[in-house]
Structure formats: structure tokens, C-alpha cells
Amino acid sequence: MNRDSLLTQxxxxxxxxxxxxxxxxxxxxxxxxxxxxxxxxxxxxxxxxLSKIGRVLAGWVPLTLCSVGLLVPFTARLWNIGVEGQVIxxxxxxxxxxxxxxxxxxxxxxxxxxxxxxxxGALWALLAGLLRVFxxxxxxxxxxxxxxxxxxxxxxxxxxxxxxPGVASMSGTQPLDVSLWLPRLGTxxxxxxxxxxxxxxxxxxxxLLHRSKWGLKMRAVGENPKAATLFALGPRRRLLQSFLFxxxxxxLAGAAQVLGVYHRLLPNIxxxxxxxxxxxxxxxxxxxxxxxxxxxxFAILNVGSIQLPLQLGLDSSLSGxxxxxxxxxxxxxxxxxxWLRQKKEAD
Length: 347
Description:
With 347 residues, the protein is mostly helical. Helices cover 73% and strands 0% of the residues. The chain has helices at residues 3-28, 35-47, 50-75, 83-98, 107-133, 139-159, 192-210, 213-223, 225-230, 235-262, 273-283, 291-304, 307-312, 318-346. Helix 3 packs parallel to helix 7 (192-210) and helix 4 crosses helix 10. It is globular and about 70 Å long. The two termini are 26 Å apart.
């Protein structure tokens, strides 16, 4: 990218931020919230201390795992809406692998749990892939349906076979032994293992999509499945592989929630990261270099939103509105840019 192109990109991004600020003012005023102070509280609430930064990074790990995983099926022009359910199923398989070891264990059990979570997420994604490839069921509909099924299975386990002794509540299953927790980064509430896994996932996806024949063939399948069939690229196999890979990373995100954050299986174990990852991917236009930074931005807003009711007396859901406004602003600017380009080419 040359210097003029870089400046153009920065200019358009600056325009998107300006539009986002204007729309945020419009949204915040009816709620009685001072717009600039609201934004300050959000970001200070996420970056104001080391402990808050630790919580931000703890949220960044599963969100990044889901977001970079989604790039693989999108390369094949597939919308893996079921990533939310794959996170949940990864958490279920992770918990199931550790239940026989209530007295704890060593690093080997943690590795076992991580592998089980990847298997659970991959199998759940494969189910959506099989419905898409052989049943001609669009992945959006199958993914949404499987999300609800995964949530139902979680609730059944928590209130049924895995309920705590004498207790069946939304507080989740019996907490894991401390020896089965992911080791933390110093005094921060984030695990260095989780950070390493997220960074490794970013690197792996980059290599697969941009530095391998596998990624080249996946792009060919996404661009023209019929031509891919003629050239014996195995489009059905590639589509299923993309679902498996994305599901494995989503399942790993579920394990990060169980082993590194909550240390038990909860009804809301996914924290909505699967759906947020879809928004991250769209905001980044599915370009890998932007994904980790946008994930960090959303993680800051999620942690900072806790301060809204404490400092300004506002509902924390306002941060979700601001997230949506910023994504909408970027789409508006991208649409304007595309319209101007098409108009210039027509002239």
C-alpha cells in the first residue's frame, strides 16, 4: 500500500469516527447521558487500571478466537452464524472432560480439556456443514437453530445431570479445582495460556489463508464453486473443512471461558462472543490484520460498560448501542466510498 492510499484509508476511517461521534450524541441525548462523558467513562472503565486491562484481555481472548475462526468459512463464502453454539458446545465438552477429575490434576488434564473443547466445537460446526452441503439447508438457519439447541443442552446439564449437590440454579455447575484453572499472567485476571492460544490462532489463520495452497483453494471454492468442481478442488470437502476449523477455534474459546474466567459451566458461558465476532468480522471487512484490534476495542467497551450504571446511572446496555452505532457508521462510510468510486468509473 503506497503512501497516498494509506492516507486515503486513514481519511475515510476518520470520517467514520466523526460520523460515529455524531450518531452517538444523537443516541445518548434522549437517555439523558452526556455523550462525551459517556465515551470517556466507557474507555476509562476498560483501561483505567491494571486489573481492568486484565479483564479486557480476558474478554479479548475468546472474542479473537471466534473472530479469526470466522474468516475461514467466509473465505469460502459461508456465514457460520452457529459460532455461538460452537462456543457453548466447546465449553460443555471441556467440562465433561474434567468432571471425572474433581480432585484436580496437572497440566495434562488441562491439555485434555482444551482438546475436548476443540472437538466439541468442531463436531457442532460439522453438523451445520453437513446440513449445508448435503441437506441444502442454509448455514444461517441451521446455525441459529443449533445455537438454541446448544443453549438448551447447557441448561439441561446444569439443572439435571451436572447440577451441584443439593443445588440446581443459574450459578452453574460445581466449580473446578484450582489446579485445573489456566495459569494467570501475574496478578491480572487473564491467563497467559489464553493469550498465547489467541495469538497462535491469528498466526495460524494468516498462514493458512495467505501462505498455503489450502487457503488458495479455499478462496477458489468461495469465488466459483462450479469451476472448483471442474478443476477437482473438492468444494464439498473444503466447505466442511472450513466449518471444522472455525468450530474448533470457537470451542477453544469456550474452554477459555471455563478454564480461565468462570471455572465452571454457566448458562451464559459464551457471553455472546459468537454473535459479537460476526460484528467484528463485518466491521473489519473480514481482513485479518484489523480483527485483533477491533476485538480489543469491543472488549474495552464490554468491560467499561460496567461503569455506566455506577458513575452515570445509565444502563450498561448503552455500550451495545454505541457498538452498533460505530459499526453502522463504518458501513455508511464504506457505502459512500463505493458509490463515489462507481460514479467516478461511470464518468
